[in-house]
Amino acid sequence: MPARPYAGMETSLHQQLKDRYAGTKGETEVRLGRYRIDAVVNRELVEIQHGSLGAIRDKIRELLDEHKVRVVKPIVASKVLVKRTEKGGPVVSRRRSPKRGTLLDLFDELVHFTRVFPHRRLTLEVLLVDIEEYRYPGHGKRRRWRRADHEREDQHLVAVKETHRFRTAKDLWKLAPAGLPRPFHTGHLAEQLGVGRWVAQRMAYCFREMDIVRQVGKSGNALLYEPVRRRRKSA
Question: Distance (Å, rounded) from C-alpha 19 to C-alpha 75?
Fold first, then answer.
């Protein structure tokens, strides 16, 4: 069973999301065979994964044999860093982190999850969240120390800004821009989305592994792709 964040300590963020999904009718921390499930609501298993989706790949694949599963993936859209003098001590400063997460960060995780998603019993739910992260001075287990080193004490949910649900490969394809040429390469994808080429390459990999696109050739060193056309079933 995958370890919880921060050396086994459950964050407030994780607990808040569990309670949010369980509501008044669900249960949390339910034992199911050799697994612990974050929440169970109306016979649907809810697994909240802050870390890599690849870390729960085998667990989710096994659970899907007999259960409906909802994997909740929070992406931090914005973060306020709250500094304490020491662990549990008074707050001495607050500042907003310059880092911003976006929905396309999902593909960083999906490259390790394409053998599980899509599945008829699986819903992938992505939350763009605002959080506060509490820190205090410390070096933890780092081999090299710096004066500015810190340790993370906890994370708190401030707001859920957006919720996106994906049940099919077609749902994911909607994240690609509508004006792509036919065929297209990852340079087209990156330019139209305004992202780095590496982001587009991860998207193209996921689309190909999920049979959304197929490779049709090359243009120089760039692979060319076209959407896979589905035949309509006859009546």
Answer: 18
Q: Are strands 150-166 and 122-137 parallel, antiparallel or unpaired?
A: antiparallel
Each residue of 141-184: pLDDT tens digit? 555 555 556 788 999 999 999 999 999 999 999 999 998 999 99
Two structure tokens written together for 7: 């050396």
pTM summary value: 0.88
Specify the 3-state DSSP secondary structure of 215. Answer: strand
Q: CB–CB of 72/48 below 8 Å?
A: yes
Instruction: Please tell me whether residue 204 adopts helix, strand or coil conformation.
Output: helix
Q: Which two tokens stand for residue 229?
A: 């056309």
* 50 φ/ψ angles, rounded to the nearest 5 degrees: -80, -30
Q: What does residue 143 show for φ and ψ, rounded to 5 degrees?
A: -75, -35
What's the CA gap between 225 and 218, in Å, rounded? Answer: 9
Please measure the distance between the N-terminal and C-terminal CA atoms of the chain and give it in whole angstroms: 46
Look at residue 195 and give its three-state secondary structure. Answer: coil
DSSP 125-138: EEEEEEEEEEEEE-
